[in-house]
């Protein structure tokens, strides 16, 4: 079986958020354990949230086995000079994503197109026009009910990351969704430091940043670590650093490839 993961948001390892990381681990597991031919594509022009090309010195920590040019048959679609990353399955970016996706589907002929996050409705419409069944993975409760109903009307399968989300989907669409829990990261067993930091990962308001900063303000004798995950834009980073000048007990650390180093110096992990 051949599965194409297609997302307007660049896939792992270009983007390191939870939803794409979950997709990566599932694709990796299916490729390794189920002999499934998995592939992943995303937009090279995505500009909603910052992302980056991994540097070669990050490859080992990110589980990238190597890189190289894509197959010759795909060069007209992906463009000259494009590098394909080996993450246990091939990962590549497409220029002019929505116009290139249809021909790309024709070229690789998947049995299923898996979409999630931004652009999912458009991606699944393209897959249907190309005669390929679609699957939509719901990772959070912020989905657009109208768009979700349109995806269900196309005959796409719906998968949710929890029973709570599956109930939300049922209420919004009348469709019963399958539940596939996010796979556990292998380094979750990493031993922390009893004398280490109180840590929060992902310095964004939607993740509870204000709560974290207020806790740190009220506990000036406790050492806190604020760990970047989603990359902060320059203006957001400058504003945050200005606020942290008033909180000398808070250390800010830029995004890292290997989170084990963060867990090793953490005594308590906050998820406000």
Structure report:
By secondary structure, the chain is of the alpha/beta class. Helices cover 34% and strands 21% of the residues. It is built from 10 helices and 13 strands. The strands form 2 sheets. It has a 9-stranded mixed β-sheet, with helices on both faces. It has a 4-stranded parallel β-sheet with strand order 12-11-10-13. It starts with a strand and ends with a strand. The model has no long low-confidence stretch (mean pLDDT 92).
Low-confidence stretches: none
Span from first to last CA? 40 Å
Tell me roughly what share of residues is in helical segments: 25-40%
Radius of gyration from the alpha-carbon trace, in angstroms:
20 Å
Name the structural class.
alpha/beta
Largest sheet: 9 strands, mixed
The ordered string of helix (H) and strand (E) elements is EHEHEHEEHEHEHEHEEHEHEHE
- Residue fraction in strands: 15-25%
Shape: globular
List the strand order in the largest sheet.
3-4-5-2-1-6-7-8-9
What's the mean pLDDT score? 92
Number of strands: 13
What is the number of helical segments per DSSP (H or I, 4+ residues)?
A: 10
